[in-house]
Amino acid sequence: QDAIDRKEKRSETFKTAVHGLETGPPAMKTEELGRRAPQWVRDNLVTMCMRCKEPFNPLVRRRHHCRACGYVVCARCSDYRAELQYDGNRPNRVCQECYIFLTGHVVLEEREGRHKGILEKGAAEVSGRSLLCSSLQLLDKNGKGGTRGWFVIPQDDPLVLYIYAAPQDVRAHTSIPLLGYQVKDLAQGDNRHLFQLSQSGQVYTFLADTQELKQRWLRTMARSAAGITHQEEEEEEDDS
């Protein structure tokens, strides 16, 4: 079963990398909230609440779905009830934002206006406007294990690599400024598609699922590391 799960995950990752981001449901229009059943975001696409950004865990912070927008949220952020037209106007569990919209009630703990930090850019939103995004594995110093996540270089922030735990997370857990790094293609061994970023003793080793995906990351990272932020600049460099 583990082997089957790994194969399916690799297949999904490759399709996403080649054909574009297809991991999230279509966004629901505001006027449709409560009138039409939402398409739920899949549990395995998020590791944190899509509203408060707190990480999920199996004991005290479990996953729930808002019946109005379909987001995956924690118990605290979905501790509201609102009548939904598509369900015969019966009260359903909804998130705080949908509750405010559907009922018009004011929630005292509302967190509107809080400044978004540099890492608080949703993965789906950033991936939709990215130079490149896909699943990769960031290996540990021994090169034997590491963390698998969703990696994105945004179009509006092309000199930074953002790392998410999952493709629908609403907050990146870390970022790597790419400017000045050396990008290196490592020799293929045991059918592993490896490449590195290195600068002043700091080394990051990545594992891609396919050779094609690795080459795409090498090209994109090399442009970012050189400070090339637009296609036009790259063409000028080639002409010179």
Protein model, in words:
Helix content is 23%, strand content 25%. With 240 residues, it is α+β, with helices and mostly antiparallel strands. It has two domains: 27-114, Herpes Virus-1, CATH 3.30.40; 123-226, PH-domain like, CATH 2.30.29.30. It is found in: Cytoplasm, Cytoskeleton. It holds the Pfam family PH.
- Beta-strand residue fraction: 25-35%
CATH superfamily of the largest domain: Pleckstrin-homology domain (PH domain)/Phosphotyrosine-binding domain (PTB)
As for the number of domains, it is 2
> Helical amount among residues, as a percent range?
10-25%
Please describe the biggest sheet, giving its number of strands, its sense, and whether it closes into a barrel: 7 strands, antiparallel
CATH level-two architecture of the largest domain: Roll
What spatial form do the alpha-carbon principal axes imply? elongated
Radius of gyration: 20 Å
Widest sheet: strand order?
8-7-6-5-11-10-9
CATH fold group of the largest domain: PH-domain like
The arrangement of helices and strands along the chain is HEEEEHHEEEEEEEHH
Number of helices: 5
Domain PH: 129-226
Subcellular location: Cytoplasm, Cytoskeleton
Organism: Brachypteracias leptosomus (short-legged ground-roller)
Keywords: Cytoplasm, Cytoskeleton, Guanine-nucleotide releasing factor, Metal-binding, Phosphoprotein, Repeat, Zinc, Zinc-finger
